[in-house]
């Protein structure tokens, strides 16, 4: 009993001794007018956040189709890899990070105009372009690149892992929910709504490429999903033609969490060495 008491006192007598070593995952939420719903997200806070006054660079880490805010925490080593960042993992349902055709579910507006300001009011973020990074996998990789191209003033660095940059109509006739989500988000292929959210069209419309965030793009060369590798290569070719600053990694791996976990580590390692003045 005495030993237990001593251990308890030791743990709490040295200010922040163990708090410094603990990453905190907070399940938070806000009421979104853009989506007309209560939207939940994970805020992953670095070790030492609770006992410091420091402000942190923030990574907005987006889930893929069929996923949710818990994926990156539960299915990858994010908590082990986090380093000195705040990481925000939002829910976006299967809305493709896009304002729906019918205007009822505005996921793009939610992320850019509601979530980011809320996070920057509540948490000790840097709150500037140089303190914001956007990244994601598959559908979330698409979302990250789309936001980088549409709103380059918001982010200094964007990353896409296995980005679903273009999912052709009928590519998964066995998966009706996917087809429904695509039509709800983008409408008919090559429609105005589609073009306004197409990374290739958005890249063509960029007037000042030097204003874009630095782009980190990776794809598993064994990815079996329809046209994932092909379209990432096509986008990279267009980036090169436009003179955009980017890096592309095509390495062994599929559309799997084993690949995304590896890429999360690689991305964070690259980010830790990133210098905006000498990318």
Summed up, what is this model?
By secondary structure, the chain is an alpha/beta fold. The protein is 37% helix and 19% strand. It is globular.
Question: How would you describe this protein?
Answer:
By secondary structure, the protein is α/β, with parallel strands linked by helices. Helices cover 37% and strands 19% of the residues. The protein is built from 10 helices and 8 strands. The chain has helices spanning 2-13, 71-75, 78-81, 107-122, 139-150, 176-186, 192-196, 199-205, 228-242, 257-272, and strands at 24-32, 37-45, 57-62, 85-90, 132-137, 157-161, 214-220, 246-251. It has an 8-stranded mixed beta sheet, sandwiched between helices. Strand 1 and strand 2 (37-45) form a beta hairpin.
* Alpha carbon gyration radius: 20 Å
Helical region count? 10
* Poorly predicted regions: 1-19, 170-174
Quick one: biggest sheet? 8 strands, mixed
Could you estimate the helical fraction of the residues in percent? 25-40%
Coarse shape: globular
Terminus-to-terminus distance: 57 Å
By secondary-structure content and strand pairing, the structural class works out as alpha/beta
Strand content: 15-25%
How are the strands of the largest sheet arranged? Answer: 1-2-4-3-5-6-7-8
Average pLDDT level = 89
Q: Give the ordered list of helices and strands.
A: HEEEHHEHEHEHHHEHEH
Question: How many β-strand runs?
Answer: 8
């Amino acid at each position: 009993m005495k030993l237990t008491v001593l251990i308890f006192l030791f743990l709490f007598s040295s200010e922040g001794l163990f708090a410094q070593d603990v990453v905190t995952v907070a399940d938070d939420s806000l009421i979104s007018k853009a989506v007309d719903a209560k939207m939940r997200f994970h805020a992953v806070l670095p070790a030492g956040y609770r006992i410091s006054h420091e402000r942190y660079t923030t990574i907005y880490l987006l889930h893929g189709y069929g996923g949710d805010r818990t994926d990156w925490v539960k299915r990858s080593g994010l908590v082990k890899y986090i380093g000195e960042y705040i990481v925000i993992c939002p829910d976006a349902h299967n809305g493709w990070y896009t304002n729906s055709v019918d205007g009822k579910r505005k996921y793009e507006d939610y992320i850019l105009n509601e979530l980011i300001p809320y996070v920057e009011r509540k948490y000790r973020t840097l709150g500037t372009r140089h303190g914001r990074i956007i990244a994601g996998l598959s559908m979330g990789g698409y979302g990250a690149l789309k936001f980088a191209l549409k709103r380059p003033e918001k982010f200094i660095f964007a990353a896409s892992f296995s980005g679903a940059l273009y999912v052709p109509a009928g590519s998964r006739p066995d998966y009706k929910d996917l087809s429904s989500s695509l039509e709800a988000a983008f409408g008919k292929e090559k429609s105005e709504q589609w073009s306004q959210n197409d990374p290739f069209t958005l890249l063509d419309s960029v007037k000042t490429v030097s204003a874009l965030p630095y782009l980190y793009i990776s794809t598993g060369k064994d990815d079996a999903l329809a046209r994932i590798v092909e379209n990432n290569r096509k986008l990279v070719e267009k980036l090169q033609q436009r003179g955009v600053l980017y890096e592309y990694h095509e390495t062994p791996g599929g559309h799997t969490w084993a690949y995304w976990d590896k890429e999360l580590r690689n991305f964070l390692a690259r980010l830790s060495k990133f210098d905006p003045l000498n990318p």
